[in-house]
Design a protein that fits this description.
It is a single chain. By secondary structure, the protein is α/β, with parallel strands linked by helices. About 40% of the residues lie in helices and about 15% in strands. It has 15 helices and 17 strands. The strands form 5 sheets. A 7-stranded mixed β-sheet has the order 2-10-9-6-5-3-4, with helices on both faces. The protein has a 3-stranded antiparallel β-sheet with strand order 8-7-14, with no helix packed on it. A 3-stranded antiparallel β-sheet has the order 13-15-17, with no helix packed on it. Helix 4 links the parallel strand 3 and strand 4. The longest helix is centred in the last third of the chain and has 18 residues.
């Protein structure tokens, strides 16, 4: 089976992890801040906060932005459920903005229309979460302008997009957002096995995210509130053993083992993105003339191509998505579907969402198929994928 995604682990990666295993620190040591510094420098963000998953990163970002009961977070339905669930963890409400049928990212016109209605009704969101779907950048400048007009914060879900760029600006720089979140799951661009990161240029947001990722506890003498009560010798004069839990936090820390793997992988990030783009260009050429809508990348943008998704033109092909999917799987091609619309999952249906509410996302999802794409995919394997797809389409 040719999978849709696969990690690439080298001898250097193994050596990096073994070095941590032989070191004094398996967690809360120097490997995590080193990894954070590498990523922050690469994406040109001031702060990087590493955690155990991108879901955790979304959660602490929402907490740091003050999301809570009575607030609203808007995102797209064409994403993994974590993009919406992060609001629910905080007790906030979720709503969805339809996607652009060409880019499969958030539709800026739909967002603007929805914001105008929400201002009239008194239901504006506190946070909007645009998703860089499949690694292709969103229209961040336009979203930022809307945030200034309507007063919401921007939390980029860039889980697919480390190594991508919008008009030369690295995704994750937070030039047009308050926080951006990355994922290092094994099928993403680089991996830490499991892991995520929240990026920001705001010092206060960064400190709050660091607090929330580790039980809400701090030993930072600059932040201690009640050290004088314990020491009896003056405010901030705390004994060496002293710490404070200042908020209700979580154990979302990344271990040094995971960070060491991530640091090693960072050395190959640009090569990985270049290889993914080369394979995507090859797919584009080989799939011309087939009844498929191919991925779109905006002019001047660079996609990280975490995924290569095609959308089946059902009427032109004479085949259903299920038929094509089953034929490809039977041929040993591990295609997948990204994603089932979030709002049509049972949990969100129980909150009042239903079919027909977001027609572009629903039409996309009814015909989407994710083809194999990863840096070690050989061209002869890619040829097998295309040949199997042609047979499944009767071409």
């Amino acid at each position: 089976m040719i999978p849709y995604g696969r990690q690439d682990i080298t001898a250097a990666d193994v050596d990096a992890v073994l070095a941590v295993l032989r070191s004094p620190f398996l967690t809360q040591g120097p490997a995590v801040p080193h990894f954070e510094s590498l990523v922050a420098a690469r994406v040109q963000a001031r702060h990087a906060v590493a955690v155990n998953s991108a879901t955790s990163a979304l959660h602490i970002a929402c907490l740091a932005l003050g999301v809570g009961p009575g607030d609203r977070l808007w995102t797209v339905p064409n994403t993994f459920v974590a993009s919406a669930n992060c609001a629910r963890y905080c007790g906030a409400d979720v709503d969805f903005v339809d996607i652009d049928p060409r880019t499969w990212n958030i539709s800026v016109p739909h967002l603007q229309e929805k914001l105008v209605r929400a201002r009239r009704d008194g239901t504006l969101p506190k946070v909007v979460v645009p998703v860089h779907f499949a690694g292709a950048p969103t229209q961040q400048e336009a979203i930022r302008e809307l945030s200034r007009e309507f007063g919401f914060r921007v939390l980029e879900d860039a889980a697919h997009a480390i190594g991508a760029a919008h008009r030369g600006e690295p995704v994750g720089s937070c030039r047009w957002s308050d926080v951006a979140v990355l994922s290092f799951h094994p099928v993403k661009i680089i991996t830490t096995a499991e892991g995520g990161m929240a990026l920001t240029n705001d010092d206060e947001i960064a400190e709050r995210m660091r607090l929330f990722r580790s039980h809400g506890i701090t030993r930072d003498v600059r932040a201690l509130r009640h050290a004088a009560d314990v020491s009896g010798t003056g405010e901030g004069d705390a004994p060496g053993w002293y710490y404070e839990q200042q908020v209700l936090g979580y154990n979302y820390r990344m271990t040094d083992l995971h960070a060491a793997l991530g640091s090693s992988q960072m050395a190959r990030l640009d090569d990985y993105v270049a290889r993914r783009n080369a394979l995507a260009c090859r797919y584009d050429a080989m799939l011309q003339g087939l009844p498929l809508q191919l991925p779109y990348v905006g002019e001047g943008d660079t996609s990280a191509f975490h995924l290569y998704v095609v959308r089946l033109e059902v009427e032109a092909s004479g085949r259903t998505r299920r038929q094509v999917y089953d034929d490809l799987r039977a041929a040993g091609v591990g295609v997948n579907v990204h994603y089932m619309p979030v709002h049509l999952n049972p949990y969100y249906r129980e909150l009042g969402f239903s079919a027909g509410m977001l027609p572009n996302a629903e039409a996309y999802a009814a015909a989407a198929i994710t083809l194999p794409l990863y840096p070690t995919l050989a061209e002869n394997q890619q040829d097998e994928v295309v040949a199997a797809l042609r047979r499944a389409l009767g071409r």
